[in-house]
UniProtKB/TrEMBL annotation:
<protein>
    <recommendedName>
        <fullName>L-ascorbate oxidase homolog</fullName>
    </recommendedName>
</protein>
<keyword id="KW-0325">Glycoprotein</keyword>
<dbReference type="InterPro" id="IPR011706">
    <property type="entry name" value="Cu-oxidase_C"/>
</dbReference>
<comment type="similarity">
    <text>Belongs to the multicopper oxidase family.</text>
</comment>
<dbReference type="InterPro" id="IPR008972">
    <property type="entry name" value="Cupredoxin"/>
</dbReference>
<dbReference type="InterPro" id="IPR045087">
    <property type="entry name" value="Cu-oxidase_fam"/>
</dbReference>
<dbReference type="InterPro" id="IPR001117">
    <property type="entry name" value="Cu-oxidase_2nd"/>
</dbReference>
<feature type="domain" description="Plastocyanin-like">
    <location>
        <begin position="34"/>
        <end position="147"/>
    </location>
</feature>
<feature type="signal peptide">
    <location>
        <begin position="1"/>
        <end position="23"/>
    </location>
</feature>
<keyword id="KW-0732">Signal</keyword>
<dbReference type="InterPro" id="IPR011707">
    <property type="entry name" value="Cu-oxidase-like_N"/>
</dbReference>
<dbReference type="Pfam" id="PF07731">
    <property type="entry name" value="Cu-oxidase_2"/>
</dbReference>
<feature type="domain" description="Plastocyanin-like">
    <location>
        <begin position="160"/>
        <end position="301"/>
    </location>
</feature>
<dbReference type="Pfam" id="PF00394">
    <property type="entry name" value="Cu-oxidase"/>
</dbReference>
<feature type="domain" description="Plastocyanin-like">
    <location>
        <begin position="409"/>
        <end position="527"/>
    </location>
</feature>
<dbReference type="GO" id="GO:0016491">
    <property type="term" value="F:oxidoreductase activity"/>
</dbReference>
<dbReference type="GO" id="GO:0005507">
    <property type="term" value="F:copper ion binding"/>
</dbReference>
Length: 558
């Protein structure tokens, strides 16, 4: 059997789902029961969200173009939605799972998500978007392998591990929600968890991973946290970066990696050291008091505990910025398709629209809010996508409350008046758009765009001006779905809005997201054809003003 095909089959057989084929791409069928449970991620018993009794939730493993079916039974006492961060949902924002797209699953009910990982490979994760649920679990990993005949730019690893890490609060999600609803900030997290655990680093922890001397392993590392950037390193071993959020990268070797909120990196690690235990170390970055967690990696038949001396994390964000600039797209590697990634020359496309977004924080009626260009997003009771589809958008929201150009009041950066409303930008289908995100604040931000990959062509200190374009990386910036923005700096992304639907640009910080740091791009195809966008699914949950409205005429297949 072809070695790579054997690797794919081994992973598929390891997942807790049924696999079926209906005359085309395979279907991966999952059934999830979402419940509460009591665990102690930081040593303190607390209520967490379990999926089929697991925390983190079950990993979704598949291959490019697989169809994923997830039947979610909501056994919580609150409405629930899941999003599939980084899965592009081609023509299918109906499955995006945000409150702007979908009605939540009521308690005691079930809903079936159906989507295809069309023309994608890489490392991603899912999480609940309702309330403050992701602060207490409900998240899990997604890995998408290349098809057997598509070359991959590294040898098949001995094993493929998912590492979900992030900062953690010991308060319940209801307590955290009350803090934000009362106008206060969440404050500092209490620690870090790695795959739901926080090692003590005293040599008594059970190993999280076991390795065979001389073998190479793939670790897919995602920051699923709520507030902080995380630095990751491994005692005595280097990390060879091979993939970021669906793109093969130039295979640079690092002592450690900064992974910001919402980001997923794949690294190769070779077990080439003395056979004993070693620590995988994760620590918060850019915080006054750093939290640290460890996970034990054990060599098979090795002898001896891990050294108590942990490798130190880098300091300052200038180091982090320089590392970002070292990440490069592998122009000769194939991704989901057999053609090289570099055959798409994004730097030669004319920009048709520039949108400059300035982030801010302020008080509205004495309560904390976060805004983009002066508008703090709030989800209407009728999802924006449904309101559009039913022709009732004007009863729910207004397009373009923000302008493409925004200048804060002189001397008042980040302190302008804030309007609370649904923040929806009317975008033109297939436009090539330049999006600038300015962060005048004092902490690092991280942003995700759903439905579209983008090229993160530049991050610089200061404010953006058109002259900054001369510094863009227009050759081999990594195609990805998240970007960080350092304090008093800006980031620039380029993307083609060629995926018809409603797509969320959001802060990966739970506090910022919940209090308004997000917007939606409405990308409507003028053809109203299923060639461009899927019709509303038959099982779509309805709520708000569309609940009792007659169903619109479906799109035609042209």
């Amino acid at each position: 059997m072809n070695k790579r095909l054997g690797y794919v089959l081994a992973i598929l057989l390891a997942i807790t789902c049924n696999i079926s084929v209906h005359g085309g791409d395979p279907y991966l069928n999952h059934e999830w029961k979402v419940t509460y449970g009591t665990l102690s991620p930081l040593g303190v018993p607390q209520k967490v969200i379990l999926i089929n009794g697991q925390f983190p939730g079950p990993r979704i493993n598949g291959t490019s173009n697989n169809n994923v079916v997830v039947n979610v039974f909501n056994q919580l006492d609150e409405p629930l939605l899941f999003t599939w961060s980084g899965i592009l949902q081609k023509k299918n924002s109906w499955q995006e799972g945000t409150l702007g797209n979908n009605c939540p699953i009521p308690p005691g009910a079930n809903f079936t998500y159906r989507f295809q990982v069309k023309d994608q490979i890489g490392s991603y994760y899912y999480y609940p978007t309702t309330s403050m649920h992701r602060a207490v679990g409900g998240f899990g990993g997604i890995s998408v392998l290349s098809r057997a005949l598509i070359p991959v730019p590294f040898e098949t690893p001995e094993a493929d591990h998912m590492v979900l890490l992030g900062d953690w609060y010991t308060k319940s999600h209801t307590e955290l929600k009350k803090l934000l609803d009362s106008g206060r900030a969440l404050g500092r997290p209490q620690g870090i968890v790695i795959n739901g655990k926080s090692g003590k680093g005293d040599g008594k922890d059970e190993p999280m991973f076991t390795v065979i001397p001389g073998k190479t392993y793939r670790f897919r590392i995602c920051n699923v946290g709520l507030k902080d950037s995380i630095n990751v390193r491994m005692q005595g071993h280097t990390l060879k970066l091979v993939e970021i959020e669906g793109s093969h990268t130039m295979q640079n070797v690092y002592e450690s990696l900064d992974i910001h909120l919402g980001q997923c990196f794949s690294v190769l690690v070779t077990a080439n050291q003395e056979p004993k235990d070693y620590f995988l170390v994760a620590s918060t970055r850019f915080t006054k008091d750093s939290h640290v967690a460890t996970a034990t990696i054990r060599y098979a038949n090795g002898k001896g505990p891990a050294s108590p001396e942990l490798p130190k994390a880098p300091e300052g964000w200038a180091w982090s910025l320089n590392q970002f600039r070292s990440f490069r797209w592998n122009l000769t590697a194939s991704a989901a398709r057999p053609n090289p990634q570099g055959s798409y020359h994004y730097g030669q496309i004319n920009i048709t629209r520039t949108i400059k977004l300035v982030t801010s924080a302020g008080q509205v009626d004495g309560k904390l809010r976060y805004a983009l260009n002066g508008v703090s997003h709030v989800d209407p009771t009728t999802p924006i996508k449904l309101a559009e589809y039913y022709g009732a958008g004007d009863k729910v929201f207004k397009y373009d409350l923000i302008k493409d150009e925004y200048e804060p009041s002189p001397g008042q950066a980040g302190q302008d008046k804030i309007t609370i409303a649904p923040n929806v930008v009317n975008a033109t289908y297939r436009n090539f758009v330049e999006i600038v995100i300015e962060n005048p604040g004092k902490s690092v931000q991280s942003w995700h765009l759903s439905g579209n990959s983008f090229f993160a062509v530049g991050i610089e200190p200061g404010r953006w001006t058109p002259e900054k374009r001369r510094n863009y990386n227009l050759l081999d910036a990594v195609s990805r779905n998240t970007v960080q923005v350092y304090p008093k700096s800006f980031a620039v992304i380029l993307t083609t809005l060629d995926n018809a639907g409603l797509w969320n640009l959001r802060s990966n910080s739970l506090e910022r997201n919940y209090l308004g740091h997000q917007l939606y791009f409405s990308v409507l195809s003028p053809n109203k054809s299923t060639k461009d966008e899927n019709n509303m699914p038959d099982n779509e949950l309805l709520c708000g003003i569309v609940k009792d409205m007659p169903k619109p005429t479906p799109y035609k297949a042209n």
